[in-house]
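A quick word before the example. In earlier lectures we treated sequence and structure as two separate objects. From today on, think of them as two lines of the same record. Here is Murein L,D-transpeptidase catalytic domain family protein written that way.
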Amino acid sequence: MVCFFFFSFTTVPSRVFSVQEVRSLYDQLTINSQELPHWDCFAYGMQGYLKLDNEGQIQQPYLTLIDFSLPSTEKRLWVIDMRQYKVVEHTYVSHGMNSGLVQPTDFSNEEGSFKSSLGFYLTTSIYYGKHGLSLKLKGLEPGFNDLAEQRSIVMHGATYVSKKHIQKFNRLGRSQGCPALAQKEANRIIPMIKDQSCLFIYAPQKTYLEQSSFITEQSI
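And the structure line, produced from the sequence above:
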């Protein structure tokens, strides 16, 4: 087991973690949380977070992971506090209506596709729209999610994200491509992660994993 110290990532310039170190961090989270995203989702998410942090783009020390390798009947959004290094939120999140019924398998960056988009985002400002409190997202990956703002892909609350909806329909409701949360969770999570924190939407899609500039297989 690789030893490590707890610190704020934003205070350490150009920090690069080995795979062993990231695995150690993952194991630490496992001790404190019974359910975590799949290892690949976490490891890739750490790669992107560190890249953005080293570039000075991270202002709020939170890493939000959405693991779309899981069905909508499972809680598949995590918010990790990168200062205290612990999971502070774990909840349900919807996917786009044309990405799949229960399990999202089809993703797009195209306007009007009503599909979810994979990759890394920076959170930006909050506003009040037709879904109430909402969070703008800036897609950072050309060809995968860089049209998020043009498509109005935001994080917002929705009545179709709830345990009751799952019990009635055996799945969550679906969005037009936005990562929607239950309204109560949205009102709590959005103010926490606004203003340049890192959000990563993952699925084991070969094209994305091979072409993303944020992900490398060799090192973390």
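Notice the following. The chain has one domain: 15-203. We will return to this example when we discuss secondary structure assignment.
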